[in-house]
Amino acid sequence: MTDQAERSYAPPSLQLPLSGDTALDPPAEWEELRARCPVAHATLPSGDTAVYLTRYDDVRALLSDPRFVRPTERDNAARVAPEGMGGAAVTGSAAVSIPDRGAPHQRWRRRVGRYFTAKRMTALRPGMTRLAEDLIDAMLADGAPADLRASLGFPFPVYVICDLLGVPAEDRERFSHWSDSFLSVTRYTADEIRTAQQEFVAYMSGHVAAKRAEPADDLLSTLIAESETEVGEGSEGSDGGGLSHDELVATGMGLLVAGHETTANMIGKMVSMLLCDRSRWERLLADPSLVRSAVEESLRFDTNLGFGLRRYIGEDVEIGGHVVPAGSTVVCSMPAANRDERAFDGADTMDLARTPNPHLTFGVGPHSCLGQALARTELQVVLETLLTRVPTLRLAVPADELRRTEGLLVGGLREVPVRW
Amino acid sequence: MKLTVDQDKCCGAGACVLSAPEVFDQRDEDGIVTLLTSEPAPEQHAAVHEAAAVCPTAAIHVTETD
């Protein structure tokens, strides 16, 4: 594709988020944009404009560039959500204060990342399998049809992350609302978001204080214990020693939100993608050793990932032969990049045995998803357990009737009706 | 095959350990990658190539020796 041809194509009023004809289909615009306008301008729900990237190499290069990070309120970046409707994850508000860039970020990342190593997640597998079996048994006992999202997809990762953080899973209705408001693009009003944010901070602050008073065997208790021994040795909080109280609260909130919607949504989407063409499900039944690569391919093939990752461009940068000026906000569409034929042979085919599968669903670079080993393990356990326990599983509605979640930073399905 | 890793680049995602647990490990204290062997056996080569391809920070370098 020549530069000339790219310039001659101006997509008419590109408005994010884009969506496909059905919940599982890619938006038609992606292919056109990758081919003819890989560095496009798009309008966000706020009305602000951002640069929109859809090619694999461009998305990968930008996300890997340590100069550029997710915008916060301090940056003069394009806003995603209309005034007042954006939750903290969308606006980058200072209410959550995890160190977000440079050396302090790397220090935070390593301190927390040690709890999410592949080996630790593998050690959690037997417990996860029992949990999946219990949830599936309850779903089967209630009889078909069932909503797999409500019965399994949502509670499974929520129980796992609550257990890791040592917070009671009985509070999950409240967490769920707080998590949604945290991720709101257009769903909630300013008042609802402010209230939820205050309640969430108060809850987590109380939880951190309670763990400080009575430590238990969980991630937050361990982080607190480390922080108490180290804060005095470094300068303060994020600079040299352990985590400050506010950082512990923000860490708890961030992990709870990250452990909520994303994997819950992915379970529903993965099962829907595997059942909408049931030969995929049957292939896995015939060869369960494909579970690992099928999970990766589901992550790659998912079109419904939400907004994509944003980066604030503090200095001019060349992307795919175009200069993007300092002050721009770039939205990287990982799912568009994951369907790029330049990076994946037969990108529009779901190949359950695809290896290697360097999809960008968890992001790449120094800020790529901290909990990816957890998410992978959860998805593998859920899929394995479903194949064993409910081999006759099928969708209870035509795939084109599945409905998307809307108004949040992350995408998913509102329900996943199944029979067996 | 000769294998090196860049620990400064590593972000502790653990994708390498999930791909090739006989070759890669993560340090308990910070989740950063370590090598169990820098010269993996031939039957590990495919998994090592996969680990290098899926590493989110391109911290794994493979040199073919023969």
Overview features:
heterodimer, A: 420 residues, alpha+beta, 4-stranded mixed sheet, 3-stranded antiparallel sheet, 18 helices, 48% helix, B: 66 residues, Alpha-Beta Plaits, two-stranded antiparallel ribbon, 3 iron, 4 sulfur cluster binding (chain B), Ferredoxin (chain B), iron (chain B)
Describe the structure.
Chain A is an alpha+beta fold and 420 residues long. Chain A has helices at 3-8, 29-36, 56-64, 88-91, 102-113, 118-123, 125-142, 148-153, 155-165, 172-182, 190-213, 219-230, 245-258, 261-276, 278-286, 291-301, 334-338, 372-389; strands spanning 39-43, 49-53, 146-147, 309-312, 317-319, 322-324, 329-332, 394-395, 417-419. Chain A has a four-stranded mixed β-sheet. In chain A, strands 3-9-8 form a three-stranded antiparallel β-sheet. In chain A, helix 10 crosses helix 11, helix 14 packs across helix 16 (291-301) and helix 16 crosses helix 18. The termini of chain A are far apart. Residues 232-239 of chain A have low confidence and may be disordered. Chain B has a single domain (2-63), classed as Alpha-Beta Plaits. Helix content of chain B is 23%, strand content 21%. Chain B has helices at 15-19, 45-54, and strands spanning 2-5, 24-26, 33-35, 60-63. In chain B, a hairpin with a 6-residue loop joins strand 2 and strand 3. Chain B is globular. At the A-B interface, helix 5, helix 6 and helix 18 of A face helix 1 and helix 2 of B. Chain B: GO terms for molecular function: 3 iron, 4 sulfur cluster binding; electron transfer activity; iron ion binding. Chain B: InterPro entries: 3Fe4S_ferredoxin, 4Fe4S_Fe-S-bd, Fe-S_cluster_ET. Chain B: Its cofactor is [3Fe-4S] cluster.
